[in-house]
Design goal:
The chain is mainly alpha-helical. It has three domains: 42 residues; 75 residues, Winged helix-like DNA-binding domain superfamily/Winged helix DNA-binding domain (Arc Repressor Mutant, subunit A, Orthogonal Bundle); 29 residues. The two termini are 32 Å apart. The chain is 68% helix and 7% strand.
């Protein structure tokens, strides 16, 4: 790929900017597709909403109210009920009643759910290692530096868009 001048990036001149955008979109699409295939593997058999719900429970390491879990995973309460049903059927999560408010339903990850998250993370690491195995250590370090810069720039654009300046 040719070097990109700041003028080409800012003027939107056809060329490197489109190549970068296309590469990022392809990486995003392939990573999501690869991850969905991994979750569908017979070892895991999870949907994305089930995985993200289980991951949130795992990371919170505490009981979660259904309403908080729905907000955290950006799911409707009705959808989340079905997701938690499936996780409970697989013994990955369980429902409990709040000790002081019996009307409140709490959800917690089970030890089996914790083990499954660890297995998924390990399988994902192995996939990434295989995908990047052709890179030497210096290339990996450079890639990390560049990705950090791209992520910072994308976060700034998102913040500006959310503040209404670019919306």
């Amino acid at each position: 790929m040719t070097s990109v001048t700041r003028e080409q990036l800012t003027t939107g001149e056809r060329g490197p900017l489109e190549e970068i955008e296309q590469a990022l979109m392809q990486i995003s699409w392939l990573a999501q597709r690869q991850f969905m295939q991994l979750l569908d593997d017979e070892r895991f058999r999870l949907t994305l909403p089930q995985f993200y719900t289980l991951l949130h429970l795992y990371q919170s390491a505490a009981e979660c109210k259904m309403s908080d879990l729905a907000e955290a995973t950006q799911q409707s309460a009705a959808s989340l009920t079905g997701v938690v049903d499936r996780l409970a059927e697989k013994q990955l999560a369980e429902r409990k009643r709040h000790p002081s408010d019996r009307r409140q339903v709490m959800v917690v990850v089970t030890p089996r759910g914790c083990e499954l998250i660890a297995e998924i993370k390990q399988a994902r690491r192995e996939q990434m290692q295989a995908a990047l195995s052709h890179l030497v250590d210096q290339d990996v370090d450079l890639l990390l530096q560049l990705l950090d810069r791209v992520l910072l720039g994308m976060a700034r654009v998102l913040e500006r868009g959310e503040s209404g300046r670019w919306a």
